[in-house]
Specification:
Radius of gyration: 15 Å
Number of helices: 5
CATH class: Alpha Beta
Number of strands: 7
Helix content: 25-40%
CATH topology: Rossmann fold
Order of helices and strands: EEHEEHEHEHEH
CATH architecture: 3-Layer(aba) Sandwich
Largest sheet: 7 strands, mixed
Bound molecules: guanosine-5'-triphosphate, magnesium ion
Number of domains: 1
CATH superfamily: P-loop containing nucleotide triphosphate hydrolases
Strand order of the largest sheet: 1-3-4-2-5-6-7
Length: about 190
């Protein structure tokens, strides 16, 4: 699959603001600063589709993008950002729950984890949550440019093990910086949409 057309649709904090349910959606979830927005820009061949920031907590809303006129990519706000207030993280939880549990046209959630680190307790929680809703199975290990080839394989195995991922789960190392891994991910996304 190639992405030729991308159009920002809207930002939402509650259900009434979502676009209609007529098109399939693939969402991207992961801790704050893991590289969700950067990955979306890599996939869409753009520098500015999704806002990237070096300070965590940049994406605070659910952002919908129309892809090739046929499906949507959804940029979810990151979790695990320590410097948000309790009420902000409660808002985050409600917002995520509302989207992930009640979106019939949501086909898959690509879960992003940083290839350099063992997944956090929140990553594990997110994985379990996605599995519960039948949305797990496609994992991206971000910032692959930051580790050696040898570390890469070791860390991919550690990520699988820590998340307690299914044998059949697919984990794809990606670098937004070096622009690697996007084709493999797009192939998997195409399968999800078929
Ligand atoms: N070296 C390297 N840096 C990356 C890569 N992907 C993202 N980054 C950097 O990581 C930081 C966070 O990237 P974002 O894409 O904004 O992360 P996010 O997950 O959208 O963060 P929130 O919106 O805060 O949840 C930025 O400084 C990016 O430049 C990558 O593949 N390699
Ligand atoms: Mg972001």
């Amino acid at each position: 699959m190639k992405i030729n057309r991308v159009e920002f649709l809207c930002s939402a904090v509650k259900k009434s603001q979502y676009p209609d349910e007529s098109l399939p959606e693939i969402a991207f979830a992961g801790r704050s600063n893991v590289g969700k927005s950067s990955l979306i820009n890599l996939l869409t061949n753009s520098r500015s589709t999704a806002k990237v920031s070096s300070s965590p907590g940049k994406t605070r809303t659910i952002n919908f993008f129309l892809i090739n006129g046929g499906f949507r990519i959804v940029d979810l706000p990151g979790y695990g950002y320590a410097r948000v207030s309790r009420s902000t993280s409660e808002d985050w939880g409600r917002m995520m729950e509302e989207y992930l549990s009640g979106r019939p046209n949501l086909k898959k959630v690509v879960q992003l984890v940083d290839i350099r680190h063992e997944p956090s307790a929140q990553d594990v929680q997110m994985y379990d949550y996605l599995r519960y809703y039948g949305l797990s199975g496609l994992i991206v290990a971000t910032k692959a440019d930051k580790v050696s080839r040898n570390e890469l394989n070791k860390n991919v195995a550690l990520i699988k093990r820590t998340l307690n991922a299914d044998e059949s789960d697919i984990i794809i190392p990606v670098s937004a910086l070096k622009k690697t891994g996007a084709d493999r991910l797009l192939d998997q996304m195409e399968k999800v949409l078929r």
